[in-house]
Amino acid sequence: MDQQQSPVYSLSVSGEVSTKSSSTRRNFHRRLRANLREALDRHQLGGRIVDRRDRIDIEKAGPTTPEVVRRVFGIQSVRTAYKVPGQGLDDLVDMGVALYGDRVPQRHFAVRPRRVGKRRPGSPGSTELACALGQALVDCGGQVDLNDPEIRVHVEIRPDAMLLFDNPLPTFGGLPLGTAGRGLALISGGFDSAVAAWRMMLRGMDLDFVLFSLAGWPQERSVREVLEILDGRWMAGSRSRLHVVDFRPVVARMRQQVHGSYWQVLLKRMMMHAADRIAGEIRAEALVTGEVIGQVSSQTLSNLRSITAHTRTPVLRPLAGLNKEEIVAAARRIGTFETCARSAEFCALDGGKPVTSCRPGRLDRQEARVGSELARMLAGERRIIEREVFTPVEPEESVELDHVPDGAAVIDLRREADFLEGSWPGAIHLDFDRAMEFAGNLPADRPYLLVCEFGLKSAFLAERMRRMGYRAWSLGGGAQRPERLLPHSDTSTVRTGAH
Ligand code: ATP
Ligand code: MG
Questions:
Q1: Can you give the residue ranges of every domain in the chain?
Q2: Ligand 2 centre from 43 Cα, in Å?
Q3: Which of these, 194, 410, 413, 456, could form a disulfide with 427 (CB 3.0-4.6 Å)?
Q4: Cβ 259 vs Cβ 293: under 8 Å
Q5: Residues paired with residue 208 on neighbouring β-strands, in sequence order
Q6: What pLDDT was estimated at residue 495?
């Protein structure tokens, strides 16, 4: 549509907001205006926000305003309205023809008039207006079809002005962010936790996020990339922060003290202890996870119950009843799909077949071997990253490389079958668990480049080796890019870790 003048963007507020009591509605509107202001400012769109109770108008704002404000929670629809410069029949017809004249030829259209408020004495009636504009558009080559038109020309007649509207843009509804208290979302970089957090923000919760870091920087970078998207698109008005808890000591202790089949479930229990402490400190009223009943063996109903058996903060699992297709579709809609697909799951804790039905008492006994105090203590030592700096910035001494350093030994940590199919020249194969155990036995006189499927396990091990004094790197992104893999040649398998 040809833009004649700066349009007004007219937003209808979620029905859920309009039906609240008047004081609640006033609070919700105040919050909504503040969130809209922030969204507009972040995109340098300027504009004036005029709250008209049943809707909110934004005047004199930049042309991409509808795209930005449709992602502010609590908005039901966004329409672009062109104000008719004058109050007479001719003014309306002139503007209608200017806006729609070249769109209606050979098409079916309908003029839909609507009066808001009282009729100004002496002003034309709505039917009269619709007929005059309709006739003018027929003269432009359009055909009237009131039942099933391709183009709807909405006219709103207010006491002080007439407006012409474009079709409404779909939005996401929900409640204004910040009106439903604060939660703490456990975020891993995978599809589920990002969608879970989004769903609770849609219900008005403002969220802090917590990452339990198992793989150092590459994992944190993935999570921060996901948060950058959530923040940039959906979190106008939020006061969110990311809490990063280094959970590697928990992993190390579990490896030593606990049978592999409990690792997954116990790790989640430990996360809950730590999250509980953080929630208390930041006054979060609920924890949010991306767990789905029965999606993986650690998420059977009885495991979920055991995981949170001692959690004081209520746990919300907004995806509990969804299936993977629904979650992936939601990830696409909210814009996290690509980033989450790239951010591979870190599963250094592959302890074999996990327990599928672990009663709380049994998990308590396993937990006693590690100690919940450890999780709480690590939570106390967390790093806090403000929302303004979610965007990841590479640390100076990155553990990642994209090439084999001179003279380096390449250690392939992938499954043996993958290794035998093809690896890097001169690479040796080491089982990851073995490598974790025996890394300290490797000769220290040469550098190491570690590679694995996605570059997470290798980063984990490289950081560990660095702490032991080795010069070690991880191949960023791992073996995901097939061009990196060379045909199997001159390779050997080391299974025992004894060199
Ligand atoms: P996701 O797609 O979010 O990774 P998932 O289906 O892979 O979820 P799990 O890995 O079992 O499931 O994790 C279940 C939930 O536990 C996640 O949705 C997330 O809320 C939380 N979680 C898992 N790992 C972490 C982590 N390292 N840091 C913070 N939260 C985590
Ligand atoms: Mg996960």
A1: 8-172, 182-389, 400-496
A2: 32
A3: 410
A4: no
A5: 184
A6: 37
| Calpha distance 198→204 (Å, rounded) | 10
403: helix, strand or coil: coil
Which atom of ligand 1 is found nearest the CA of 247?
27
CATH number belonging to domain 400-496: 3.40.250.10
pLDDT in tens, 17-42: 988 899 999 999 999 999 999 999 99
8-172 CATH: 3.30.2130.30
Tokens representing 493?
A: 């398998």
Task: Return the pLDDT at 205.
Answer: 98
pTM, 2 dp:
0.80
Instruction: Please classify residue 376 by burial: count the beta carbons closer than 10 Å to its beta carbon, then call 0-12 exposed, 13-18 middle and 19+ buried.
Output: middle
C-beta of 331 in contact with ligand 1 (< 6 A): no
- Candidates 474, 354, 485, 330; CA nearest to 408 is 474
Ligand 1, atom 5, residue with closest C-alpha: 192
Q: How far apart are CA 89 and CA 84, in angstroms?
A: 10
Which listed ligand is nearest to 195 at the C-alpha?
1
Neighbours of ion ligand 2 (CB under 5 A): 188, 190
Ligand 1 atom 16 nearest Cα: 289
Quick one: which atom of ligand 1 is closest to the CA of 214? 27
